[in-house]
């Protein structure tokens, strides 16, 4: 601490004369040891106050970690990843020592050298080699260095409101498996209940993200690698088919509800209020619906595997915890300790998982037993699931259409290069289709592809 | 205050036709103003106590059947509105102080002390009026995250808001022009009495300049209370953000009724201040509003 | 601003005639005087140096550089400008911004003038009118926008529900590229009108009553008094406010950012939002700075006109 006042004095008589409380000052030198020699580790991933059970668990974990690792103080941050401001914060250099980003981001961050490899440290953990290679690949560089620890990996499915299904005379135990069936069900729901049959996201890059899922389900791809450079391929037939489906549902069937400019949170918020029949989402949206948006009737939450129309594939995703370049060696070492303790171990060890589940389940507002993709292999995941089962407070049978259907699907990652850029461009295509009756799908896609490719080409120069 | 002569004269008003017309225009205007002034505020309060299901099923109900009162507490504690309001106060307070301090000292130096090349400095200050900080936010951000020479990173600290708040050329101009108008004989007399330069400022100039200090304060406080884009860029840590930035994030992260309750809490302080001090504020704002 | 500024300027002209003598009497004292004077300028010099002058220069530099803020920047000449002009979104954003400005002037300009004219004729309770008209200005912009976003909601929003009662709509407001910008302008007008009304009112108070009386004696009716006395007397205030409005609306950001995020289909993507996206979404700081530079030039021209008008107004 003694250095700080001198630095401030350097900024001149102003700072000295201003004599404001130096509250803003404590953060001037992030990632430095506090006065009594403790190392302060700033980590993202602390749940917001609205998610009380999860926050309580986080605090408990922190206390246990600090007890097991004297000399390290963990300071949680609720900062959530936002592609709009994230690179600003990262370049600002005052980012935490552990950051939490969605699975789209690690590749870009690794390429831009904004995060640091943690392979050496992580290898000290006994089960390092058992990570699911499909998942770990997405957070490793080409030369095999690993950069992070994954959490709750998921595959997209179709979330649906079982109650609205029943009201519309549909069977909630056999949800749609093809997109034609989705269309028919959506039409029926909106006719019989007056609620939105199916809602598609269109804002904050999530329109492009959801169109990617649809494209995969129709058997297409949105990016290709040719001669070592990546290029967008928006004009494939599957993407066009997907958009034609949306167009028909929106304008012919009028089954997509009134409001069209939604991001994921908007959709889940409406779903939690019982206003939405179906949307593309993972089982993890259950947590948001229940804990953040206070869904009262959680028995109505149902989720099926992604319906297919020729693709037999679904999009995967998840959260990853990374260590930014700005953390020095001591902090990076402490960060990996924390990652192992808080995320790797509880997803591997049945006792740790059971303990976590138990403490979460103490609050009836928590969500325990939501299925995830295996972080390690399938056998390990089965053991974890079994260990959690006694504490599960979700209706596991309502997740069965998902887990059963998922087995037969290919799991595809997001577009590997600059996915967010593709999504931005596709957002406005989706918006056009959903808000303009006479939107020209082919022309829109061609124009978006051209724009994005100009940008991708410039970036790969 | 005697009645002002306007384009409708006293003579006009004596004619029944005109009088009726004028009166009905007045009443109509009053109704419209009530609708657009108080209406939205009322609707916001109503929305904050209405259960989300009722919000969608009976959107036009004037008051919910079973009003909720818990939303305000939820918004204040769980959504963190209390902390965001405190953050806003810190930001506003610091920005106000810096702006007043810089404007007063600079105005004093340029107007009363008049150092050599002072006019050059004044010109350079005024020139910044041509480059609004919003347009310049990218390079301001780059600068704030790595101050030249000092290599300090002010990002995610309140200094990143407070210090740039001082760069308001308009308030420097206001201060200087006001000080210019003060009688110089007073300063000379004070000098003869042995007053130091600092005492000249604090004992003579400032006490005589209350009106302009009030206007500068009003401008500074209004601006920093309403500012959105710069805190959005400079403060990414949710723990430090002001209410305006936090609300934009909460908009999609909170249930509708809680969000509206949070909005009511955010509106309450400025509206209350306005209601209490409106006599003084409306008079002052007539001048300051130009700066928008 | 000049309402306040006029009087001091006049007085300043008087005070300049008496030279600042005593400081020059002795050289030592003069030097010390200079030092003290500069010492009082230090806060302004530091603050303006770090947070105004340097960023302006730096912005110019970055527009010719490629930088990710972590590695040292490299010079790329006009590359940033080239990729800026190659981006079709630039035309969209400029067009959208002009549309916003045009609509804001069209709707937001006559409304406060009209309101002020009506309020100026109110004899009892004018304070209530003023209070009500200024109330929306007090609401923080983000709250106002979120409130209107709720009103605009195509499903359960106030507007569509109310209009539905009289058989109109439903309208898509923010959700169609045709009406999104108009919806933004309506909110912005509501939120910003109060300030202009108060300024017009202040100016109207300043119009000498004799002018009206003379016109009335000449047989001018109410309408002609408005047309031949009120409006000509307000000419300079009107010009001034028009320019202020132009300057402010060209920089529109919060409305599109919070309302629509630039959508639908980029219909509300404004120049400032594009700058923000380049920098903080794409990390293309150079390109963002290049666009900022172009915008500064436009704004500087507008501001120059503004200052000119202010000056002629204060002297007239």
Automatic annotation (TrEMBL), chain A:
<dbReference type="InterPro" id="IPR050490">
    <property type="entry name" value="Bact_solute-bd_prot1"/>
</dbReference>
<feature type="signal peptide">
    <location>
        <begin position="1"/>
        <end position="27"/>
    </location>
</feature>
<keyword id="KW-0732">Signal</keyword>
<dbReference type="InterPro" id="IPR006059">
    <property type="entry name" value="SBP"/>
</dbReference>
<dbReference type="InterPro" id="IPR006311">
    <property type="entry name" value="TAT_signal"/>
</dbReference>
<dbReference type="Pfam" id="PF01547">
    <property type="entry name" value="SBP_bac_1"/>
</dbReference>
<protein>
    <submittedName>
        <fullName>Sugar ABC transporter substrate-binding protein</fullName>
    </submittedName>
</protein>
Automatic annotation (TrEMBL), chain B:
<keyword id="KW-0472">Membrane</keyword>
<feature type="transmembrane region" description="Helical">
    <location>
        <begin position="259"/>
        <end position="277"/>
    </location>
</feature>
<keyword id="KW-1003">Cell membrane</keyword>
<feature type="transmembrane region" description="Helical">
    <location>
        <begin position="120"/>
        <end position="145"/>
    </location>
</feature>
<dbReference type="Pfam" id="PF00528">
    <property type="entry name" value="BPD_transp_1"/>
</dbReference>
<feature type="transmembrane region" description="Helical">
    <location>
        <begin position="200"/>
        <end position="222"/>
    </location>
</feature>
<feature type="domain" description="ABC transmembrane type-1">
    <location>
        <begin position="85"/>
        <end position="277"/>
    </location>
</feature>
<dbReference type="InterPro" id="IPR000515">
    <property type="entry name" value="MetI-like"/>
</dbReference>
<feature type="transmembrane region" description="Helical">
    <location>
        <begin position="84"/>
        <end position="113"/>
    </location>
</feature>
<keyword id="KW-1133">Transmembrane helix</keyword>
<keyword id="KW-0813">Transport</keyword>
<keyword id="KW-0812">Transmembrane</keyword>
<dbReference type="GO" id="GO:0055085">
    <property type="term" value="P:transmembrane transport"/>
</dbReference>
<feature type="transmembrane region" description="Helical">
    <location>
        <begin position="157"/>
        <end position="179"/>
    </location>
</feature>
<dbReference type="InterPro" id="IPR035906">
    <property type="entry name" value="MetI-like_sf"/>
</dbReference>
From TrEMBL, chain C:
<comment type="similarity">
    <text>Belongs to the binding-protein-dependent transport system permease family.</text>
</comment>
<dbReference type="InterPro" id="IPR035906">
    <property type="entry name" value="MetI-like_sf"/>
</dbReference>
<feature type="transmembrane region" description="Helical">
    <location>
        <begin position="285"/>
        <end position="307"/>
    </location>
</feature>
<keyword id="KW-1003">Cell membrane</keyword>
<feature type="transmembrane region" description="Helical">
    <location>
        <begin position="98"/>
        <end position="119"/>
    </location>
</feature>
<protein>
    <submittedName>
        <fullName>ABC transporter permease</fullName>
    </submittedName>
</protein>
<dbReference type="Pfam" id="PF00528">
    <property type="entry name" value="BPD_transp_1"/>
</dbReference>
<dbReference type="GO" id="GO:0005886">
    <property type="term" value="C:plasma membrane"/>
</dbReference>
<keyword id="KW-0813">Transport</keyword>
<keyword id="KW-1133">Transmembrane helix</keyword>
<feature type="region of interest" description="Disordered">
    <location>
        <begin position="1"/>
        <end position="27"/>
    </location>
</feature>
<keyword id="KW-0472">Membrane</keyword>
<dbReference type="InterPro" id="IPR000515">
    <property type="entry name" value="MetI-like"/>
</dbReference>
<feature type="transmembrane region" description="Helical">
    <location>
        <begin position="35"/>
        <end position="56"/>
    </location>
</feature>
<feature type="transmembrane region" description="Helical">
    <location>
        <begin position="181"/>
        <end position="206"/>
    </location>
</feature>
């Amino acid at each position: 601490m003694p250095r700080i006042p001198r630095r401030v004095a350097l900024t001149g008589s102003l700072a000295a004369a201003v004599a404001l409380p130096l509250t803003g000052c404590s953060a001037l030198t992030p990632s430095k040891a506090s006065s009594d020699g403790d190392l302060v580790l700033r980590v993202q991933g602390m749940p917001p106050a609205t998610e009380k059970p999860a926050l309580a668990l986080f605090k408990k974990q922190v206390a246990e970690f600090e007890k097991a690792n004297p000399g390290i103080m963990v300071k949680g941050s609720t900062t959530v990843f936002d592609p709009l401001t994230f690179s600003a914060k990262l370049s600002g250099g005052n980012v935490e020592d552990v950051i939490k980003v969605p699975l789209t981001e690690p590749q870009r961050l690794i390429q831009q050298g904004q995060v640091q490899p943690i392979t050496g440290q992580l290898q000290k953990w006994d089960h390092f080699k058992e990570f699911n290679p499909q998942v770990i690949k997405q957070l490793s560089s080409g030369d095999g260095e690993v950069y992070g620890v994954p959490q709750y990996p998921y595959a997209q499915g179709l979330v649906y409101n079982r109650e609205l299904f029943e009201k519309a005379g549909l069977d909630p135990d056999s949800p749609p498996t093809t997109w034609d069936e989705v269309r028919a069900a959506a039409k029926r729901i909106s006719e019989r209940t007056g609620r939105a049959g199916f809602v598609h996201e269109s804002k904050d890059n999530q329109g492009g993200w959801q169109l990617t899922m649809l494209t995969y389900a129709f058997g297409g791809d949105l990016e290709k690698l040719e001669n070592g450079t990546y290029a967008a391929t928006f004009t494939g037939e599957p993407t066009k088919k997907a958009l034609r489906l949306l167009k028909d549902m929106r304008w012919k069937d009028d089954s997509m509800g009134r409001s069209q400019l939604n991001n994921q949170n908007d959709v889940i918020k409406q779903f939690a209020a019982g206003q939405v029949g179906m949307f593309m989402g993972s089982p993890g949206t259950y947590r948001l619906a229940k804990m953040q948006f206070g869904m009262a009737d959680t028995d109505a939450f149902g989720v099926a595997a992604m319906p297919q129309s020729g693709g037999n594939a679904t999009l995967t995703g998840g959260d990853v915890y990374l260590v930014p370049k700005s953390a020095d060696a001591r902090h990076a070492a402490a960060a990996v300790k924390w990652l192992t303790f808080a995320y790797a171990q509880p997803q591997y060890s049945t006792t740790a998982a059971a303990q976590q589940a138990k403490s979460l389940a103490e609050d009836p507002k928590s969500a325990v037993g939501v299925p995830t993709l295996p972080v390690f292999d399938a056998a390990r995941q089965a053991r974890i699931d079994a260990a959690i089962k006694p504490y599960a407070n979700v209706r596991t049978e309502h997740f069965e259409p998902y887990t059963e259907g998922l087995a037969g699907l290919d799991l595809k990652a997001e577009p590997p290069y600059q996915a967010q850029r593709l999504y931005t461009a596709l957002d406005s295509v989706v918006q056009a289709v959903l808000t303009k009756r006479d939107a020209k799908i082919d022309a829109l896609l061609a124009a978006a592809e051209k724009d994005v490719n100009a940008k991708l080409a410039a970036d790969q120069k | 205050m005697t009645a002002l002569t306007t384009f409708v004269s006293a003579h006009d008003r004596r004619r029944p036709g005109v009088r009726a017309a004028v009166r009905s225009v007045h009443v109509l205007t009053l109704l419209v103003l009530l609708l657009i002034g108080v209406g939205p505020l009322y609707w916001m309060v109503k929305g904050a106590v209405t259960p989300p299901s009722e919000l969608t099923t009976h959107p036009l109900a004037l008051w919910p059947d079973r009003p909720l009162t818990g939303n305000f507490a939820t918004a204040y504690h769980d959504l963190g509105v209390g902390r965001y309001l405190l953050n806003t106060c810190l930001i506003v307070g610091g920005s106000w102080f810096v702006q007043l301090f810089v404007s007063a000292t600079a105005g004093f130096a340029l107007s009363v002390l008049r150092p050599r090349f002072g006019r050059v400095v004044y010109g350079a200050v005024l020139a910044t009026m041509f480059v609004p900080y919003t347009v310049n936010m990218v390079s301001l951000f780059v600068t704030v995250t790595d101050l030249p020479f000092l290599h300090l990173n002010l990002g995610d600290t309140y200094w990143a808001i407070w210090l740039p708040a001082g760069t308001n050329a308009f308030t420097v101009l206001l201060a200087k022009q006001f000080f210019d108008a003060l009688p110089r004989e007073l300063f000379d007399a004070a000098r003869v009495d042995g007053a130091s330069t600092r005492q000249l400022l604090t004992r003579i100039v400032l006490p005589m300049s209350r009106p302009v200090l009030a206007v500068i304060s009003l401008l500074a406080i209004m601006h920093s209370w309403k500012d959105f884009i710069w805190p959005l860029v400079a403060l990414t840590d949710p723990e430090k953000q002001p209410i305006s930035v936090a609300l934009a994030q909460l908009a999609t992260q909170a249930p509708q009724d809680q969000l509206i309750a949070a909005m009511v809490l955010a509106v309450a302080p400025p509206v209350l201040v306005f209601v209490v001090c409106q006599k003084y504020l409306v008079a002052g704002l007539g001048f300051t509003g130009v700066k928008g | 601003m000049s309402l306040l500024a006029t009087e001091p300027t006049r007085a300043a002209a008087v005070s300049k005639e008496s030279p600042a003598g005593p400081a020059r009497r002795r050289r030592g004292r003069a030097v010390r005087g200079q030092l003290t004077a500069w010492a009082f300028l230090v806060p302004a010099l530091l603050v303006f140096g770090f947070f105004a002058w340097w960023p302006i220069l730096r912005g110019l530099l970055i527009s010719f550089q490629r930088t990710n803020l972590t590695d040292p920047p490299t010079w790329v000449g006009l590359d940033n400008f080239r990729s800026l002009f190659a981006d079709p979104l630039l035309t969209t954003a400029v067009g959208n911004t002009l549309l916003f400005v045009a609509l804001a002037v069209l709707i937001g300009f006559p409304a406060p003038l009209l309101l002020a004219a009506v309020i100026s004729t109110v004899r009892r309770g004018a304070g209530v009118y003023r209070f009500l008209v200024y109330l929306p200005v007090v609401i923080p912009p983000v709250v106002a926008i979120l409130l209107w976003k709720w009103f605009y909601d195509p499903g359960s929003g106030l507007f569509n529900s109310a209009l539905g009662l009289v058989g109109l709509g439903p309208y898509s407001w923010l959700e169609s590229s045709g009406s999104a910008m108009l919806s933004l302008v309506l909110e912005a007008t509501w939120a910003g009108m109060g300030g202009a009304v108060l300024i017009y009112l202040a100016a109207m108070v300043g119009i000498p009553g004799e002018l009206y009386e003379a016109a009335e004696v000449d047989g001018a009716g109410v309408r002609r008094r408005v047309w031949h006395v009120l409006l000509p007397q307000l000419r300079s205030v009107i010009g001034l406010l028009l320019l202020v409005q132009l300057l402010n609306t060209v920089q529109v950001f919060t409305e599109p950012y919070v309302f629509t995020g630039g959508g639908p289909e980029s219909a509300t993507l404004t120049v400032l939002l594009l700058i923000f996206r380049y920098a903080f979404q794409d990390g293309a700081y150079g390109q963002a700075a290049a666009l900022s530079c172009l915008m500064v030039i436009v704004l500087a021209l507008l501001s120059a006109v503004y200052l000119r008008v202010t000056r002629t107004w204060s002297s007239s």
